[in-house]
Amino acid sequence: MLDGKFEPDIDLPPKPKARTGRVSLWGYFRQFKKDILSAQPGHLYRAWMAEMRTPFFRSYLCNDPELVDLVLKQRSHDFPKSERIRVGLKPLLGESVFISNGETWARQRRIIDPAFEGGRLRTVFPAMWDSGVAAVERLRPLADGSPVEIEEQTSHVAMDVIFRTLFSVPIEHEIATAAFEAFRQHQAAQPVANITAVLPYPKWLPRLHSRKTRDTARTIRGLIGQLTQQRAKEIADGTAPDDLSTKIMTTPDPETGELFETEEMIDQVAIFFLAGHETSAAALAWSLYLLARYPDWQDKVAQEALSEMEPEKIYFSTVSKLRHARSVFRESMRLYPPVPMYVREASCPEQFRARRVKPGSQVILSPWHLHRHERLWDRPDEFDPGRFDTPNGKECLRSAYIPFSAGPRVCPGSGFAMVEGPLLLSMLVRAYRFELVEGDTPVPVAQLTVRAADGIRLRLTPRDDHLNKETGK
Fold first, then answer.
1. How many CB atoms lie within 10 A of CB 197?
2. Residues 92, 270: contact at Cβ < 8 Å?
3. Residue of 329, 323, 347 lying closest to 288 (CA atoms)
4. Spatial separation of the C-alpha atoms in residues 270 and 272, rounded to whole Å
5. How many angstroms separate the CA atoms of 184 and 97, rounded?
6. Is residue 417 within 8 Å of 279, Cβ to Cβ?
7. What is the pLDDT of residues 42-78, one digit of tens each?
8. What is the C-alpha end-to-end distance of the chain, expressed in Å?
């Protein structure tokens, strides 16, 4: 109540119910495997730190911004990627930069990072633009007011961006199409909580993966290998296009002068598929849903796109003009961070908030809880893209906002994503009005990324139709 009056109802975007009561370790594991988010207790939205003890390991979830800063920035080398999480991802990713540690990781970053510098983004920007144009055209037959499964569409355009920017081919390319289909099958087969990631098995003991997981991973890596070998030949012949794969494959390690071997390049392309496709698709889908739920903001983004974008001209300066789209995309990733948790491992004795942390303990940083922390953010569960212009929003943006991680291990494609997301969002909303399907509210769940349990369905209609109605044409 406010001043003796009831507080007005606030339209909050969907949030999964937190777990209530205690559960056994195996009960928790079953819930965790089904959905990471609803398996967690509600007090994590208020706690600075939480400890979980099991017969096999201890975990510490850290929401205290000082601890987050310590683990990700100040002493990141003391908190490498957890071996337990690496287990489930190795069939597809091998030793990619996402799961490697130590000198292997440092060498990979020295080669990869130059490909994602600002100047390179300008070079691949036309490919992103072409993906957006193709997505608008692909949606045209579906924009009749009937429900459309949006996550399927955003997955399509995000993968198209990856193929165009990495290998200069659209998703309709034969190998690209096959890889996209194999990747979808791998997502369905890949468990997040592999049992060997929980039990303290010896490192020499083989890890258990389903046959489908192994088969789809092998298929994807084989297709990536074909593209990589073809590009190597083009580089040797002097006919290679100036895209991301050419840049990465021709960039020597500044310390050793070595280039990526074929298998190493396959590892890196696999993580670009995973991180650059899966996470971008999730973020774009939730952004479109939120704009459908809050049409005032959709109108702001549409008007901005209509006034600032010229569809026939491709120019990088457009990015800086899409302020509303950028704010919406940023707020969408606050409410629905594509990667809900990062897991590190303490490599030496630590002390967190007066608690002893033994070597080998898991250290969990949860964007999902940090981004909605009730003691950090004003109105944490509300959708408000304007919050980042407030003192609280600016402070939390610095200390409690980590959709791409932070520090030395920040996602090398973060700048890429913050160009891609607002651009595609603007192009889609410029062309179509997105509306909710009555009674169809998506429920967020997290397995590999934060998606909707049963998909996100929205109605699309051409924006020209609405403009014509408003002007009486």
1. 20
2. yes
3. 329
4. 5
5. 22
6. yes
7. 999 999 999 988 776 788 999 999 999 999 999 999 9
8. 47
